[in-house]
Amino acid sequence: FPENAPARNSRVTNSTRRPPPAGLDGADAISGVPSNSLERKQSRRTHYPGDPPNLVVTEILLSEDHKWGRLDAECGWREFAERAGPGLEEDLVRGIADFDPDVILGVDWSSLPAARSLSRRVRSLKRREGTAGEDTLCDNAPTHLIAPFVYSNFRVFTRSAPEAHAKLEADAVAAARGVLVLCREDADFVAERLSPPGIAVAPRVVLPPLREDVRLLAESPAESTETPDAVSVSERKYLTCCVRLSPEKEPENFLRLCRWLAARDALRSASLVPVLCASTRGEYAASVRSRFQECVRGNEHRIVTEHLDAKGLRDLFRATKLNYHPCRKDAYGMTVVEAGAFGAPSVAQRGGGVGATHTLREKDGALLGMDLRMTERSFSSSGSDDADDDEAAHAEVLKHALDAATLARVGAAARRAATAWDEAANAEAVARALRDVIDAHRRVD
Length: 445
Known about the structure:
This protein has helices spanning 77-84, 90-99, 111-129, 162-175, 184-194, 212-218, 252-263, 266-269, 283-295, 310-318, 334-341, 391-402, 404-420, 423-444, and strands spanning 12-15, 27-34, 43-46, 56-62, 103-107, 149-153, 178-181, 204-205, 238-241, 273-277, 302-304, 320-324, 346-349, 368-370. It is of the alpha/beta class. Helix 2 (90-99) crosses helix 3 (111-129), helix 6 packs across helix 10 (310-318) and helix 7 (252-263) runs parallel beside helix 9. The longest helix has 22 residues, at 423-444. The model is unreliable at 1-25, 35-39 and 137-142 (pLDDT under 50).
């Protein structure tokens, strides 16, 4: 825990695929990563640059057949749970038992099966060694965790695929002593749709931070508007859409915008180069890429097929005049914040349905809002579908793209807001939530 924690450091075991937030001291972390061979060790310990020396990260190595290519119900969560319990090395299990965690922080629903598997393994060890307490021997031991569980719901999969995920996510909510979500919309959804019957769950909103490697690049002297190397609005040409190409992200709204602009020769007259980030694989993503090319035929454009690391994001957003976030609802939308970090203003749906609009707020001048009214329906790049319901929103986007003074002002405000909410600020918020759960658990005991 950070320096202002009580003298006795609270101990945290994080059963998740990702390292815990920076700033959480005295902790073990368990995460799942793919392995190229089943013959390799099933776990390995590592240390991430910048982490405190007493933070131990144990990576659970998954087989190639079950690698983390996705995070929904089709991912390798069963193998992750198996290797976090029966497959874990004895010395590590003993270390966790001796560590005696005060709280477990789990990211997404797949962390709960792993936490339960690990808990069973620790209880089994304690029973063999005669150190088991009464709670270890209780009747509900198969589902009883070795510490209070805090469920951090990064993405609510029940929204897009309720049949496969509602029970899994509801189970995680029911098992949790505290629930963290990324935006107000998710908090309301979890409270209304995933809470146990008769129990009012009140999730806490903790906005995700700008990644540290992105922040460091964004705050380098070359990005400052006061230096000769700063990129001016006139040098920026890209009209960028950088989201995962899946139906819930509604990339077709960007295609509609591009088709509308191209039909009016506005891409050429406004010197806009539409850019579609398209590293997503699959049939739907391939269809979006193909239809995008049809929409902008005859105009300069770019399709980015490679995965963008921090430097790739910097190069993209330094050349972006306006970042277009196409979906009406999004748990967060980190690319809105990443664009802002490099001075690229974003246009996004009003109303609070996009979580990132709580970090970059329109009322603070750090975002350009729009009102998409389009209902979900099929899209044709040729324009043969129904009349475009969002012509007013498209016209507003074009107006913004032509207003250099507004773009410069909003880009500067977005940069300040994006870099202010960093990993340290986020870690403090997560740590407060964990301490609250620990304190409440001790009061009950």
